[in-house]
Write a structure and sequence with these properties.
The two termini are 30 Å apart. This protein has helices at 14-26, 48-57, 106-120, 135-143; strands at residues 5-8, 41-42, 61-67, 72-82, 88-97, 125-131, 147-154, 164-165, 171-178. The protein has a single domain (5-178), classed as 3-Layer(aba) Sandwich (Aminopeptidase), CATH 3.40.630.30. It is globular, with a radius of gyration of 16 Å. The mean pLDDT is 91. A seven-stranded mixed beta sheet has the order 1-3-4-5-6-9-7, with helices on both faces. Strands 2-8 form a two-stranded antiparallel ribbon. By secondary structure, it is an alpha+beta fold. The chain is built from four helices and nine strands. Helix 1 crosses helix 2 (48-57).
């Protein structure tokens, strides 16, 4: 097993992260992974410029990258935000694992790390949104402690920065998980 490191994304990583996300979500540049959006949304999921803007816009946002000696193999976006009752919430998104490297525990490793980052920033809840028709992915998150809140959010049909929707029935379901410190 190769040695992996997890660090915060910096400018030198942005092109690799964009390539990874597009491959994992849309199959661009290679075979799509099990959690892809192929047949649901087409086009690029992100660009290095969009990632750079996201990181530059807020100090509360970071993208964590997992790499071996040469390549970025997985990533996840973590944001410190405020919930409806004023509490600190860790918003998690953009979890991606290079399709040829899936089924090795990298996704769970990244999710665990993002949750630990959430705890470190003072959050007691992790929150995310998932495209409603991605039942297999939602089930994976549910196996790892996330629960549907009953809330939904509108899918951005008019915003092509996230790709071109291929279906008219898309929305996001909101998932949450109570964060608990290890050993607590």
């Amino acid at each position: 097993m190769a040695a992996w490191t997890i660090t915060k994304c910096d400018a030198a990583d942005l092109a690799q992260v964009a390539d990874l996300v597009n491959a994992a979500y849309r199959g661009e540049g290679g075979q799509a992974g099990w959690a892809s959006e192929v047949g649901i949304v087409s086009g690029q999921r992100t660009t290095s410029a969009a990632l750079e803007e996201d990181l530059a816009t807020s100090a509360a946002v970071s993208i964590l990258v997992l790499r071996d000696a040469t390549d970025v193999l997985a990533c996840i976006r973590v944001e410190r935000t405020t919930g409806a009752r004023g509490q600190t919430v860790c918003y998690i998104g953009l979890l991606a694992v290079r399709p040829g490297k899936q089924d090795r525990g990298l996704g769970l490793t990244m999710l665990d790390r993002a949750e630990a980052e959430g705890l470190a920033m003072g959050a007691d809840v992790a929150r995310m949104t998932v495209v409603s028709v991605r039942e297999t992915l939602i089930a994976w998150y549910e196996r790892h402690g996330y629960r549907r809140t009953g809330e939904t959010e509108r899918f951005p049909y008019d915003d092509t920065r996230f790709g071109v929707p291929l279906r008219s029935d898309l929305e996001f379901v909101v998932l949450e998980k109570r964060l608990v410190a290890a050993g607590a």
